[in-house]
Amino acid sequence: MRPVDLARRHGLSTQAVRNYEDAGIIPPARRSRTGYRDYTATHAAGLAAYLALVPAFGHSTGRRIMRAVTGGRLDEALEHIDDGHALLARDRNTLRTVEAALPHLETSAPDTAAGTRTPYSIGELARHLALSPATLRAWERAGVLTPRRDPLGHRRYLAQDVRDAELAHLLRRGGRPLGTIATVLGELRDAGSLDALAGTLEGWRRHLVSRGTAQLYAAGLLSAYLDSMDEPARTARSASSATRAG
């Protein structure tokens, strides 16, 4: 198969195919007596697998998986795949955590933070919440709160920090661990508001479904690539067996 034929099959340039070969993503092509590359069905299967791995695991991990498979390091490739699956599982757990907390936040979210005199010092915020400063420092170490610092290094809690502290106090009274609260408030800070967070979660869910589906699809094409790499060996073994039987 000529480079241009392989490239056109996947909507790529011939230079891209050569780059993938040079990077070890697909095996080295056979060369004709005049030096031209001659690609096979194995190269086509490898290229298809790589292009499917990119949306499933990302460019970097997809490259590592393909280099390992093409280089004969299947255990290494499977470790990268396992890591990708574990990351997806963690993201799903985070989504469930935030979704479970959102209804509680929507019904119980404090509405006083915006009108609160700010910035607060740590002592003032502690008195506002009837907590100790040590508790607020523990929440900060856990990533629950992210106060600013003034030029002297003193903590300064703005209106959003007060809101986060009040929500954290609410969730702690509900028995939520600090790690869970940090996750929820981190997502809330990124989204900007509870309404925005609810919309973000729906988009996040769609993205996770898309990643999971892409991983299933990539697994099938990667398996086909592995089969194509084994085919010459199986053919050789069959031919050898036939010769001995004859």
Report what the structure shows:
This protein has helices spanning 3-9, 14-22, 41-57, 59-70, 74-108, 122-129, 133-141, 159-173, 178-191, 194-245, and strands spanning 30-31, 37-38, 148-149, 155-156. With 246 residues, the protein is mainly α. The protein has a two-stranded antiparallel ribbon. Strands 3-4 form a two-stranded antiparallel ribbon. A hairpin with a 5-residue loop joins β1 (30-31) and β2. The radius of gyration is 28 Å and the shape is elongated. 24% of the residues are buried. Mean pLDDT is 85; it is low at 111-115 and 233-244.
Note the main attributes of this structure.
single chain, 246 residues, Multidrug-efflux Transporter Regulator, Chain: A, Domain 2, two-stranded antiparallel sheet, 10 helices, MerR family DNA-binding transcriptional regulator, DNA-bd_dom_put_sf, DNA-binding
Q: Let me know the average pLDDT.
A: 85
Count of individual beta strands: 4
CATH fold-level name of the largest domain? Multidrug-efflux Transporter Regulator, Chain: A, Domain 2
Largest sheet: 2 strands, antiparallel
CATH architecture of the largest domain: Orthogonal Bundle
How would you name the oligomeric state of the polypeptide chains in this document? single chain
Protein name: MerR family DNA-binding transcriptional regulator
Keywords: DNA-binding
Pfam families: MerR (PF00376), MerR_1 (PF13411)
GO molecular function, one term: DNA-binding transcription factor activity
